[in-house]
């Protein structure tokens, strides 16, 4: 039996633009689907990983999916200092990226908030 499989999508990376590897789950994805992070400074002026959603900051960047799951994976693997070639003994806080990802509105967040509101109303004693 012969099946003629026609590829639905043309396998040409040139049309999709640059591809980067997520430092959390290590999957390759179009750069526009990933959040760029760079070494910046936190509120105390200490070196820290900060989000660069516009991709305009100078210097070496590390890319990851804009999800807390990939962020936590990257933190656990100490992927930020490695990807950013940071030479401060790995002491590089990425908390700003985590806060940024928690603030980014997503469909699941909206549904979760609606559920929480309903629960608050019903749990009055
Ligand atoms: Zn990922």
Mean pLDDT: 80
Total number of beta strands: 5
- CATH fold annotation: Hypothetical Cytosolic Protein, Chain: A
Describe the strand arrangement of the main beta sheet, using strand numbers: 4-3-5
**What is the radius of gyration?**
19 Å
CATH class: Alpha Beta
Q: Describe the global form.
A: elongated
Unreliable parts: 109-120
Strand content: 15-25%
H and E order: HEEEEEHHHH
Number of helices: 5
- The CATH homologous superfamily is named YlxR-like
Distance between the termini: 68 Å
Tally of domains: 1
Bound molecules: zinc ion
- From the helix content, strand content and strand pairing, which structural class follows? alpha+beta
Largest sheet, strands/sense/barrel: 3 strands, antiparallel
Known CATH architecture: 2-Layer Sandwich
Share of helical residues: 25-40%
Sequence-ordered SSE layout with sheet pairings:
Elements: H1 13-16, E1 19-21, E2 28-30, E3 35-41, E4 47-51, E5 61-64, H2 68-76, H3 79-83, H4 95-103, H5 107-122
Antiparallel strand pairs: 1-2, 3-4, 3-5
The structure holds zinc ion.
